[in-house]
Amino acid sequence: MTFPAHTVEKIGGTSMSRIHELRDTLIVGDRKADALFHRVFVVSAFGGITNLLLEHKKTGEPGVYALFANDDNDHSWLDALTRVAEAMGACHNKVLHNAADRTLAEDFVRDRIEGARNCLYDLRRLCSYGHFRLSSQMMIVRELLSGLGEAHSAYVTTLMLQRAGINARFVDLSGWRDEAECDLQARIAGAFQDIDLATELPIVTGYAQCREGLMREYDRGYSEVTFSNIAAFTGAKEAIIHKEFHLSSADPALVGAEQVRKLGHTNYDVADQLSNMGMEAIHPNAAKILRQSKVALRVTNAFEPADPGTLIDEQAASAPGVEIITGLNVVALELFEQDMVGVKGYDAAALDALRRHNVRIASKTSNANSITHYVEAPLKIVRRVVSDLEDAYPSAKISARNVAIVSAIGRDLSGLKAFSRGLMSLETAEIDLIAAHQTPRNVDIQFVVPREAADAAVMALHAALVEASREDHLQQVA
Q1: β-pairing, 265-267 with 201-205?
Q2: Closest residue by Cα to residue 289 from 227, 345, 365
Q3: What is the percent of the chain with per-residue pLDDT over 90, rounded to a whole number?
Q4: Residue 77 burial (CB count, 10 A)
């Protein structure tokens, strides 16, 4: 199966809430005739919908999934599903202005929400008999609920574009009422087998139901994995992620819009470091798929369609330089044991405990008698890990402390003296330094500071390593 030259483009949830604006700029703009096509759009759910379906990504407030998982017979998840339907209605009424389109959207929501409601209710009743365990079905429930959001946004976007006279096509990968069982490649192949990219504009769900189970492996990073697999399968000339901001040297709200600079060009190594710091240009597994398929990635600002954004490929930097400063709140989990020195694999039990509680390790340092894991997890989970470690290492001293890692990242940091310059900038800003680390690969430097000093550290490091370097370059050119 071969496809003409095309791009595969993803629109995130926050941007999807303004899809009616993007119709006239990003999707259509000044394009006419054939220029409207040769593109595939993979869409996330409208902003906030996935939080209502699962749980709030930042606050942890329970959605339908979390309420269903912890149901104590008050059936609060049923009311939560109703709230999802209402929120979906508010989203598509904002986007669709034709009464017939709104009716179609309402019918679509009713079919999906009531279908999910009946499915979950029957599952709860079935598991009451004792031979069936609800716990073994919860990942499937999570997949089912996730697909509702992307299916809704893709369907509504298709209606909106068709009303504007564009030959858009709704491509539903969510497996709704599909009895066939297939892997992700087969799911994508089946959906694209009769699509003509020269005359149709596919609007594809960011969730794809498949035998592998995307949620099990990637949880809420599934839409980018779907997007990258479509780009790889169709042989896209470029994969594009449209965000609501440019990929910049720091948060402009923190250091000032006039001080930041758009990256413009970087590589997948930097993208991986950003992902590790919680600032995902793209999910690391999605990046791996694109990299192995030799598909370049571009990250753009969806609301500045004329700007080429930032290209991410495998090219090395033309010159050393710090490209971005970013921070991540973590917990420093330190295990100190005087008798550790000389013992091989001493931290195996610690790694087991972190893995068991599904705790992500952002960084790790060690010396003769202590190991510190910098982890990203809620405090209650960290306490459980500490409890397990105290049982496993009864003679060890274990402590947990809220800190932040502020990282300077670039394709090539060699010869910049960025480590010493960074230390000096933090000292000048009177920021206490807890730890600092640089690997021989020279792609990132990590400074560990008190959590309350994270923003100040980002500003100090950006001024010293990005703004000062730019001024030096301008002076050399002059």
Answers
A1: unpaired
A2: 227
A3: 72
A4: 23
Residues 238 and 148 in one domain: yes
Judge whether 143 lies within some domain: yes
Round to whole Å and give the CA distance between 151 and 140. 17
Mean of the per-residue pLDDT values of the chain: 91
* Residue 474, pLDDT score: 41
How far is it, in rounded angstroms, from Cα 168 to Cα 101? Answer: 14
Return the pLDDT at 348: 87
The count of structural domains within the chain is 2
Residue type, 280: E
Tens of pLDDT, residue by residue over 258-303, are 999 999 999 999 999 998 888 767 888 888 899 999 999 999 999 9
Q: What are the tokens at 113?
A: 């929400």
Residue 477 above 60 pLDDT?
A: no
Q: What CATH number is attached to the domain comprising 361?
A: 3.30.2130.10
Token pair, residue 118, equals 């009946």
- Residue-wise pLDDT for 387-421, tens only, equals 999 998 999 999 999 999 999 999 999 999 999 99
Closest residue by Cα to residue 78 from 110, 112, 116: 116
Which residues are CB-neighbours of 237 under 8 A, at least 6 positions away?
Answer: 5, 6, 7, 295
Contact (Cβ atoms closer than 8 angstroms) between residue 137 and residue 123: yes
* Structural domain that includes position 105: 7-244
Angle at CA of residue 229, ends 225 and 235, nearest 5°: 145
Burial 13-42 (b: 16+ CB within 10 A, else e): bebbbbbeebbeebbbeeeeeeebbbbbbb
CA 386 to chain centre: 28
